[in-house]
UniProtKB/TrEMBL annotation:
Stored InterPro entries: Ergosterol_Biosynth_ERG27 (IPR051593), NAD(P)-bd_dom_sf (IPR036291)
Keywords assigned: Lipid biosynthesis, Lipid metabolism, Membrane, NADP, Oxidoreductase, Steroid biosynthesis, Transmembrane, Transmembrane helix
Assigned protein family: Belongs to the short-chain dehydrogenases/reductases (SDR) family. ERG27 subfamily.
The protein's name in its UniProt record: 3-keto-steroid reductase
Lineage, highest ranks first: Eukaryota, Fungi, Dikarya, Ascomycota, Pezizomycotina
Membrane-spanning parts: 285-308
Length: 438
């Protein structure tokens, strides 16, 4: 019996690596799934199989995603077919995708998904919290045209010309309490952060110390967009940017002793047992439907993005596949490599970056108040320090700024845990009978 045939017979003995990816129907989420397939097949041993659980909001989108993922897999297999048909068949046997339904803005459906997965008792090796919405209503075109023509890198990386909704709520369906007695939940806040936050807590029995919780943040989450007194950004513009700054605060402070009283209840583990690690990524600047640009103007948006890259911006990944490199790195990088990097340099934001020629790579990204790695004044190797890659108004992170970031992070954790406990009381803990989902 030849080697490929023997390996095919042993496919049932493969160790399964399971990844849950939210918001996978299009854009970055779909590209993350595609890139995970490609990198897993050619970097992991044949004894391992990949199981991608991808989320969409309805069955039609789920089936559409499955068809397109399968088409991508077949393209990958055709490229590998230059070796032998046996190798191609072996690769195909190592990948499985499965769609599950959830609407991150509807907590009843978040609970239903958690219960569905808990019943399987299948370990989650990694989760990628990608799903989200922008909450934008349109574009101030005169301002957009002027700033893009006069300051293209800054304007296309940190835009100030998008019109945002204010105070839009995610009205919760299927609750026993009446709507008047239910505290408000911001739509962008819930879809981008709180839905994932609740799902992480409920799925904690399926996560162990080797599991990775990968949050997809953004380079646009500057500190001026976030206020602790308006955690959900219900009273101000820029709910999207606020939610991404909130993500920065949660993830970057998640391993600190000062936040431990809250992270321990969020991710309960037995004494002396390490919690799963949380990693923060961002995709750079890419052209996806989240920007809500009129379709006839999309080619112009893409052209400006490429021009910004050619002028020296390291963050204009433009295509979703290149933008997915940082999230996939945090999912698939060998544990010793990832742990050594964060132990040596410190915890930081892993960004998707590109060269002028478009060659993608993973780069540490500066976060105002935290720096590159939580150490004031230190810049790890491989970090993007070029002027073109830095917001012009960003303040240097000194000891005082670093301390303020940690204090704010602790207060954010306190507020989020209080919010979680309150909503878990309304929804019931996982394991209790769930309300009907959508």
């Amino acid at each position: 019996m030849d080697a490929p045939s023997q390996s095919l017979n042993n496919v049932a003995d493969q160790e399964t690596f399971t990844v849950l990816v939210t918001g996978a129907n299009s854009g970055l989420g779909f590209a993350i799934c595609c890139r995970l397939i490609d990198e897993f097949l050619f970097s992991r041993p044949q004894s391992q199989a990949l199981h991608i659980l991808y989320t969409t909001r309805d069955g039609k989108k789920s089936e559409d995603t499955r068809v397109r993922l399968n088409a991508h897999l077949q393209n990958t297999l055709r490229e590998a077919n230059g070796k032998t048909m046996g190798i191609s068949l072996l690769l195909e046997k190592r990948v499985k995708f499965e769609g599950v339904l959830v609407d991150l803005a509807q907590l009843v459906t978040v609970k239903a998904l958690a219960q569905q997965l808990l019943q399987r008792r299948q370990k989650l090796d990694a989760v990628v919290w990608n799903a989200g919405i922008g909450g934008w209503t349109g574009t101030n075109w005169p301002k957009a045209i002027w700033t893009l023509l006069t300051d293209i890198i800054q304007a296309s990386t940190w835009p100030t010309y998008q019109n945002s909704e204010i105070g839009t709520l995610a009205k919760q369906k299927g609750l026993a309490t009446t709507e008047e007695k239910t505290p408000p939940l911001g739509q962008v806040f819930t879809a981008n952060v709180f839905g994932h936050y609740m799902l992480t807590h409920w799925l904690s029995p399926l996560l162990d110390s080797d599991s990775r919780i990968v949050w997809v943040g953004s380079i646009t989450g500057l500190p001026n967009f976030f206020s602790l007194s308006d955690l959900q950004c219900l009273r101000a513009h820029d709910a999207y940017e606020s939610s991404k700054r909130l993500t920065d605060l949660l993830v970057l402070t998640s391993d600190l002793p000062s936040t431990a009283p809250f992270t321990q209840t969020f991710l309960p583990t037995p004494p002396s047992t390490p919690k799963p690690k949380m990693y923060l990524t961002h995709p750079g600047i890419l052209a996806t439907s989240i920007a809500s640009v009129f379709f006839l103007l999309e080619p112009f948006m893409v052209a400006f993005f490429y021009l910004a890259r050619w002028l020296g911006s390291p963050w204009h990944t433009v295509t979703a596949y290149k933008a997915a490199v940082s999230a996939c790195f945090c999912v698939l990088a060998p544990a010793p490599q990832l742990e050594e990097l964060e132990k040596r340099d410190g915890k930081g934001k892993w960004g998707s970056a590109v060269s002028v020629a478009g060659d993608e790579r993973v780069a540490r990204t500066e976060t105002e108040g935290w720096g590159f790695c939580g150490k004031a004044g230190e810049v790890p190797s491989g970090s993007m320090t070029a002027k073109a890659g830095r917001h012009r108004g960003m303040k240097e992170t000194g000891r005082e700024e670093r301390e303020e970031f940690e204090v704010l992070g602790r207060e954010v954790w306190r507020e989020m845990e209080a919010l979680r406990v309150g909503w878990e009381g309304r929804l019931g803990k996982v394991g209790q009978e769930a309300s009907e989902d959508f």
